Every structure is written in C-alpha cells, then in structure tokens.
Task: structure prediction
Amino acid sequence: MAKKDMEKIEGLGIVETKYYNMPDGEEFLLESGLKISTLKIAYETYGELNDDKTNAVLICHSLSGDAHVAGYHQGDKKPGWWDDMIGPGKAFDTDKYFVVCSNVIGGCKGSSGPNSIAPETGKPYGLGFPIVSIKDMVEAQRKLLSFFGIEKLLSVCGGSMGGMQALQWAVSYPDEVLSCIPIATTYKHSAQQIAFDEVGRQAIMTDPTWQGGDYYEKEQPSAGLAVARMIGHITYMSNESMEDKFGRALKKEELGYEFTTEFEVEGYLRYRGDSFVKRFDANSYLYITKAMDYFDLQQDKKLHQAFKGIKTRFLVIAFSSDWLYPPSQSKDLVKAFKMNGIDVTYCEISSDYGHDAFLLEFNEETKLVKHFIEKTYKRVKK
Result:
C-alpha cells in the first residue's frame, strides 16, 4: 500500500487474518453426531487481552460476513464490515477490550467448510462436508477462545445470524457470558423466513453448473448464486429505502418494451448478485442458510423456559423498518428475559434502512453499546 494511502487509514490500521487448527488426533463433534477431523478457524483479533483475561469481546458475523470485521487488509481500499463499531474510542473500544471475530464453520472465508480440502480425497468436500448448526458455530468459537485461555466473555455481540450465535452462547454457556448484545435477530426462523432461504437454495441447486455441489474444478453456479443473493438482498432493505433510492427510475430516458435491465432497481440487484458471486461460495450459502433455518431456541416449549437460570445481561436492539427480523421477534425475547428476572435493556431504533440498518446505523448503536459494555466492565473490575 502506498504511503499516501496509508496516511488516510485511521483506527486499527493494517490487520491480518490468522488461523487456528485443532490439534492432530482431535475430532470436532457436531450437533448431528457427525465429526470434522481437521477443524480450521479463520479469525482476527483487535486490542490486547488483559492479564486476568476479563476484557474479551466476541463479535459474530451474519450470513455473508467473515472474520475481517475491522481495520484494513494490506492493499484494501475499504475496511472490515463493521469498522465503524470497533477500534480506539469506538463502541467496542480496543484501548479497553480484546475483540475477537472468527469466520463460522460452514463458511468460505478460511474456516472449515464445503470448499475446504477433505483429507480423505485431497479435493474440496462439496456436499461431503457435514451439515452444521448455529450451535456448532458456537462450539467452534469456544474452541478458539480456549486457545487464548479465555474462560469468560465480557460480551458477545452479533447482528442477524450473528445475533443467533450470541443468543446460543448465552443459552449453551450462561456462566461464560457476562453480557450479550443480539441485534436485528430472532430466536427461531418463521415459516416465511425459511421460505425465503429455500427459494435462494433452489436458485443455486437448479443451476445446471451446480452439479450436486461438485463444481470446484469446473464452473461455479454463478447465475444461481447471484439470484439467491438478489432474493436475499430484497429482504435486507425496506420498502421505504428502496423507494427513496430507486423509486421507478429508469436507466434510460424511456421504456424500451423489452426484457432488459430497464429500471434502476433491476440494475442494482444484478450488480449485488454479480458482486456476491466474486466473493462467496455457492455451497456455503446452502450450508449457512440451512443452519439458520434449523436454529430454534424455543423447541416446542415456552420461550421463557429456554432462558431459565441465565444471569447474563442483555441489550436487545431492533430496527423499526426491519421486516426480515421484525421488532416483534425481539420483543418476544425481551418478554422471555423479563419472565426470568434477567437484566435486559431493549431499544428499537427508528430507521428506514430495513434489516441492513444494523450495518448502517452505527451512530445510534454506538451510543447504546458503548454505555452497556462499559457498565458491564465496571462490574467485572469491582
């Protein structure tokens, strides 16, 4: 990176992705009962772990995210996906806290997933990689934290699928999580949410080049993956944000009365789909959306029963125009927490950005998160 470009970089500066490999001979047991023999986790850290290891914060990413949550990789023009929230003086202040983010298993950004090499064949797993769950993602993160000697998290935070992981942490390991910040998320997928995921999966699986997931040495199912992303992106925006951004604007001066990209919103969705294909693996899209659909903390019981005995503090954040994970689902969580006498704060941020607001409304999120985590940290230091 040129010196002139380096001078523009503030905050965390240049960071790099690192990798944890499970020791030889160990096997990683999945919720399904299947095992992964060579578990690999891509991760990044920011800040310093204090001597008593009480300042660790885990950030969990959403469907298409990765471990690169903040700072710049060498040569990049843009920082990590939540850089506005992580760094010196920011919501997750790296002058105080040790922040960790890892790529989920089943992903395609360095952690074990369908594009990883299977030791038995020397080729990518494809659909030979076992199905994973949100709980499996959490267990892999716990392996990584154990590597650092971290026994308790000051906080775990995530938006969308990241929020599911945060909630699973609190349920699976209530004594190891002091505070939890689930943002724009849910405790289980509704039928509509599952339906959107299935349409996206079918777009991929009916692409002729998908070939049952065995395409790694051939042509990627780009058309199917692009359509899946287009479908998903519609759910991430609100009607208001789409209307404000595009309305019925045309790419040319007048309609051509043909099946081409005529409306600006059509061009935008195609651009999003084409861009996604360049950075994501189609099989990982299948695996991760399936993990989200399987996620269900309620499991045919009263929701409040899932959080019985939990002492974790919660800050639940929702957004007014989010129709993918609407505020009503966050309010259900808050009600369940209160029925258990759990310390919970709820905030619904007014925003026209829809579900994407958790990646964009960082000013409002910072005000809430910074105060909440500082209060938790003060309790630890007493």
About this structure: Residues 3-187+298-381 form a domain with the Rossmann fold fold (CATH 3.40.50.1820).
